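Incident log, structure service

09:12 report received: a user says their structure output differs between two submissions of the same chain.
09:20 pulled the input from the user's history:
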Amino acid sequence: MKLTKKSHSCVRLEKDGRVLVLDPGGFSEEDAALGADAVLVTHEHPDHFDEGRLRAALEADPAVEIWTLRSVAEQLSAAFPGRVHTVGHGDTFTAAGFDVQVHGELHAVIHPDIPRVTNVGYLVDGGKLFHPGDALTVPDRPVETLMLPVMAPWNKISEVIDYVREVRPRRAYDIHDALLTDLARPIYDRQIGALGGSEHLRLAPGGSAEL
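09:34 re-ran on a clean worker, output below:
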């Protein structure tokens, strides 16, 4: 499986000539969803879900399908019948040749006065990779590669470190990093790498790794 990091929380997975894209939101590239065979969206916040990007992908290729939660699916399903699938915690499905299991139900707390939206994470190919969206969800099975939300209004570095410790992946790659300045990156790299207990890695947008 080939992992390609796009901007912020968007990642692209390739296997056997097929492409799965996760969270091509408004902080990712304009063409982040184009060329995908399938797209997964974790929740409705605009840095993870951009309706225009998804419509462009669906219109460009009539075979493209999307799996996501209800709040996102409702905005697309009428225009693309049969191609937008609603999923929730515990569901399993196959998308673009990848086996996917859904974990989680709610977005992390931003502030007690801000209502929590639904958020789901996606465990790919039996634990080869886990993308939690905007939550610190711990799957019920081992994870090889954790996509790690490293900087957000809803987390702090101690929580990020403890999340890596709890999931115990072989490796963790940063996502949700558009808010993290270049000045701060070495601090995060050092602290997470030293204290998380797993290999901590970072890809620049467009960078790839074989998993």
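09:41 both user submissions now match this output. Likely a transient worker issue. Closing.
09:42 reviewer note: Residues 157-167 form the longest helix (11 residues). The chain has four helices and 14 strands.
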